[in-house]
Here is the input.
Amino acid sequence: MSLLTVASVAPLTPRMTRVTFDGPGLDELETWPDQQLKLLFPRPGGSAHVSDSSDAGTWYQAYLAIPEPERPWMRSFTVRSLADGVLTVDFVLHGDTGPASRWAATAQAGDVIGRFGPSRDYARPLGTADLLVFAGDETALPAIASLLELLPGSQRRLAFVEVADPVEEQDVPGVRWVHRSAGEDLVSVVTAAGVPSSAWVWLGGEASAVRALRRHFVGLGVSKRDIEFSGYWRRALTQDDAPTADDLAEARERLAALSE
Here is the structure.
């Protein structure tokens, strides 16, 4: 576990802000597609520090041993970019209903949070199909944007991102923006897109939408091995809440897909 120090904060849209960090060990990290890490946000008057252990099991036990009123909030994020010792993370701003959004709304240079990862153990390669499909909501936009940047110009791709309204669009070439303000939703738009069964698919965002889209693509005949999927958040629930039956089912499906 290491500490991160905010180097800069810049708004991208009314509902998304970009934060760059520096900190020990960042210049030693490799990069790979869809890098995931844990960020730790201190409670008021508290610290983001947990332990210096780099072992996930040891570190997590140390994290759980901290009394809950003092334990920093932990949330999962995707690395937007990592280069020359600078880590960039994009935060969705959805008011003060969650610790990450609340922190990002007032973040300034010099603020300190904690990180664990990214870990190479969770690295997954991009697909090699003729057509790659990416779909998610704004929480998945940093991952989708970073993945699209890795693709050669000759690679066929389809990308769908659901956002609140046109003001939330970013300069990400080739994205089909899905606007909730126009009555659109990600599942309806993607399922109507006519994707062939030979595609490789990446899905991220709200858990029930991700599950619905995965079922759709499996029903089309896309191999489960060719569908990467992750429910980033759950309606009316946070990562602090106990997993639901659907969450456990998703975890079993992910494990089954990895073993096939």
